[in-house]
Amino acid sequence: MKKIFLIIPSLHRGGAERVVSILANHLSRDIFDVTLILLEKRGSYLKDLHDDINIIDLKQLKVSKAILPLIRLIKKEKPDLVFSTLGHLNLALIISRDFMPKNTKFIAREASIPSILNQSEKYPSLFNFLYKRFYPKFDKIICQSEYMLNDLKEYFGIEENKMVVINNPVDFDKIEKRLKDTNSSSLLSTDKKNIIAVGSLESVKGYDLLIKAFMKVKRDNICLSIIGEGSLKNEFQSFIFEQKLEDRITLLGFQENPYQYMAEADLTVLTSKLEGFPNTVLESMACGTPVVAFKCPGGIEEIIIEGQNGWFVEHNNVEALAIALEDHLDNKLDSLVIKQSVYDRYNLNYIIEKYETLFQGVLNESA
Description:
About 40% of the residues lie in helices and about 15% in strands. By secondary structure, the chain is of the alpha/beta class. It folds into two domains: about 1-170 and about 345-365, 3-Layer(aba) Sandwich (Rossmann fold), CATH 3.40.50.2000; about 170-345, Glycogen Phosphorylase B (Rossmann fold), CATH 3.40.50. The strands form two sheets. A seven-stranded parallel sheet has the order 3-2-1-4-5-6-7, with helices on both faces. A six-stranded parallel sheet has the order 10-9-8-11-12-13, sandwiched between helices. The chain is globular.
């Protein structure tokens, strides 16, 4: 049995955290001895973990403070494979690889679009250099989308054979169970058309553009509900009140079970500036609800099949978004077809099998 470390800062709400919790739960116990390493043991996905998962808490949320304990742990335990995700953590581990066991394999899961995300760093040129210099030292890099793979190839010169595309999984069984556990009464207005958006209230999600677009929607029987928490909550709430839109736009905060909202909504909308491979889009479709999305950098173009499970809008085009929201509320799509479009490509068993095949292939290279 091969010993695998899955490493992530925490299991706080987020797409990468969700994927790691799914991997920890579903990787074959007949093949892999899985240990989950958290820089700090916190986050809403902890409660979703199976009881048999070994968790090590480093009690150091900052990567800079956790890297030495990580090196010591890996040197002591000598895992066959280390899997990590999120850019700063990936870089810290691979820069330190020479101090760790030579036989341990390292796989990174890239969580965003580095050529864009690095520009938000204090020293963008430094991070671009680090990606070019050290990322090729990984035995394999998992990209969530073809877009992400091409970004790493084009901007950082990483060879294509060093990378593999594995999309994010959708746990249909979990979603169906959570839908059965929901309230019998409706959570959204039953006498109006309902649009929802799901994601953190941060700049990258583009909710400022969404609210501005909604201001241009003329029909007063349409409501917008935004699920999520974040640093811009008060700013958005103040703007909504200033524009006298509090009867039409609601900030619902974090919802433990967002799936009933998704299932009840007429549309889900995505206005992000960039998205690696948006889980909320996949989950909305798994609930049978179509998606209107900005054609932003990332994997969204690989998910939406125009007119079958959703529609695209020109990126950052507020006018076009307002028109699309009104128009597509009346374009009914078959919910079963929407669900099937996601199930066929991203169901949990299919994606987990891809991960297991990749892990075994990398491990066999050293056999």
